[in-house]
Amino acid sequence: MLGLLLAKRGVEVTVLEKHADFLRDFRGDTVHPMTLDILDELGLMPDFDRLVRGRMRAVDFSTTDGTLVHQDLDAVAPKGAKYAEIALAPQWDLLDLLSRKAREYPSFRLEMEAETTGVLRDRLGRVRGLRYRQGGEEHRLRAVVSVAADGRHSGLREEIGTGVRELGSPIDVLWFRLDRREDEPTELRGTIGRGGGLVAINRGDYWQVAFLVRKGTDAEIKEAGLAAFRERVASVASWTADRLDQLASWDDVKLLSVTVERLRQWAVPGLVAIGDAAHTMSPMGGVGVNLAISDAVAAANLLAPDLLRAQEDPDRFEKVLNPAILDRVQRRRQWPTMLTQRIQVIGQDRVIAFTETPEGRSLLPPAPALALLRGPIARVLPRVFVYGVRPERVAG
């Protein structure tokens, strides 16, 4: 997204993608109104609509003992909101769309199978580009600004070197596929029960299933055996029971270790981090890709004018480009990130508590707490996770 937006403004930009394609199972598929607005502003909605496999017009939090919350999105939409739905589209298809549109601009270049191996620095220690490996050869790419947008395992985090604030997470996710029949719902399916929480994402002919468990218990679960795990999943979501034999071995179940953290400082001279490279999000609320896109829009809005001026006279770019402008990205995006992460941490604690409810006690909270959950909380949380704390708009 950042490459597309900068190229649209006339900035020369090169994107380095480590892999040969964008296919990654762990990528989320929920595209929220805060992102739909951005795609609409870019004129991409007709193309994006062809990628959509389902739409959610309400948010449901259910347990095996009944519904916690059902909230229609149009009832909590900000005034003038154009979209009151969450679109379900494979993230790799969205990335293909963005890269295809970006290639229409002559100043955009995408290098696939190009793995970043380090940074280039000047004699003062400022970052002045990247080193990368492609086709078995080492390359150097000089740049006015380098952006770390390569996720939670970004190798460029160490180059920023200011440390990470870890907020902790009590959950991990066990990730697997189950067949999906044509007559089944198209929207995301989810529930919480004793023993775990389950979210199933529609990916056409299969469900991508995320099963939430207490962090650090995966070895214990495996020791109990695959049959016991199948029973555990079925007890939370009975509709999965007739297909859990598709989990033939533990090779079919992958562990996603959940972390919630953020860099203390997102930028140093010549290098700035955005998205999960700057702030690793929990899967709670499916907000990660949406915050990353908002970061990209903010970064493009803030950096493009200075990058264009630097581009006009590249030999003088050190004088033209004030390193302090990179700090503006963090100032703009840190508050929405901090608030969202804080709510995620609280939500994770509540979810894991639900999954450990003793037998004989309802998973639904007492009436006063349930009324609060279905009232103010049900109105506030969708505004934060679905519409965004500080939604970004495309400039220029």
UniProtKB/TrEMBL annotation:
Ranges of residues in domain FAD-binding: 1-306
InterPro entries, per database record: FAD-bd, FAD/NAD-bd_sf, PheA/TfdB_FAD_monoxygenase
Keyword Magnesium on entry: no
The entry's keywords: Oxidoreductase
Keyword Oxidoreductase: yes
Top-level division of the source organism's lineage: Bacteria
GO MF term list: FAD binding; oxidoreductase activity
Protein name as it appears in the record: FAD-dependent oxidoreductase
Protein's organism: Amnibacterium setariae
